[in-house]
């Protein structure tokens, strides 16, 4: 998907061939506009097991539950949710997934499109980067050193498109 052939305006009634296509479009739309995305729910048909509807939301949708943490915890996590209402909902009609709800407004500031690649939903390790990480791991290079090497090759950590924690998670998943 290239940015030159995409109409970035979502509309009710847009049709997609597969259940993954609307999410990929929502992901690209979020990166272009400046927000992270996530899947809210996916409903499946009980008889066939096929997906019948789904909802994709802004990453800041919803609110955290009441705080039940211990008072002796020194570093509490920051509140990231703002109850943002931006979302799309799709439903299966005539073997196509059709957008039947689209709410555009955000109640928080958006990221610059140049920085959205570092939001959790947009971070990814490419195949070439994965090969280099595997190569460094096989030769005993520590994860921190691997990340520093990759940052040096890319010019800066903001140019990589993933974090040190993503390397750790990738290696743990591979093992």
Describe the structure in your own words.
With 175 residues, the chain is an alpha+beta fold. Helices cover 28% and strands 19% of the residues. It is globular.
Question: What's this entry about, in short?
Answer:
The protein has helices spanning 20-33, 127-138, 143-154, 164-174, and strands at 15-16, 37-44, 51-58, 87-93, 96-103. With 175 residues, it is α+β, with helices and mostly antiparallel strands.
Low-confidence spans: none
Helical segment count: 4
**Tally of strands:** 5
| Overall mean pLDDT | 83
> Which strand order does the major sheet show?
1-5-4-3-2
Q: Tell me about the biggest sheet? A: 5 strands, antiparallel
Succession of helices and strands: EHEEEEHHH
Tell me the span between the first and last alpha carbons. Answer: 32 Å
User: What is the strand content?
Assistant: 15-25%
Helix content: 25-40%
Alpha-beta classification:
alpha+beta
Overall morphology: globular
Task: Report the C-alpha radius of gyration, rounded.
Answer: 19 Å
Key attributes of the depicted protein:
5-stranded antiparallel beta sheet; alpha+beta; single chain; 28% helix; 5 strands; 175 residues
Task: Set down the secondary structure blueprint.
Elements: E1 15-16, H1 20-33, E2 37-44, E3 51-58, E4 87-93, E5 96-103, H2 127-138, H3 143-154, H4 164-174
Antiparallel strand pairs: 1-5, 2-3, 3-4, 4-5
């Amino acid at each position: 998907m290239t940015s030159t052939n995409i109409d970035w305006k979502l509309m009710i009634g847009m049709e997609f061939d597969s259940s993954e296509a609307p999410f990929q479009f929502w992901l690209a739309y979020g990166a272009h506009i400046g927000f992270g995305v996530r899947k809210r729910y996916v409903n499946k048909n009980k008889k066939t097991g096929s997906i019948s509807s789904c909802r994709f939301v802004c990453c800041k949708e919803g609110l955290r539950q009441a705080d039940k943490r211990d008072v002796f915890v020194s570093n509490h996590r920051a509140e990231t949710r703002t109850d943002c209402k931006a979302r799309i909902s799709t439903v299966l009609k005539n073997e196509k997934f059709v957008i039947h709800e689209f709410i555009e407004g955000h109640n928080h500031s958006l990221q610059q499109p140049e920085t959205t690649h570092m939001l959790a939903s947009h971070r990814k390790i490419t195949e070439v980067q994965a090969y280099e990480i595997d190569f460094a791991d096989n030769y005993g290079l520590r994860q921190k050193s691997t990340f520093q090497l990759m940052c040096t090759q890319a010019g800066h950590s903001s140019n990589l498109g993933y974090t040190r924690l993503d390397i750790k998670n990738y290696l743990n998943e591979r093992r």
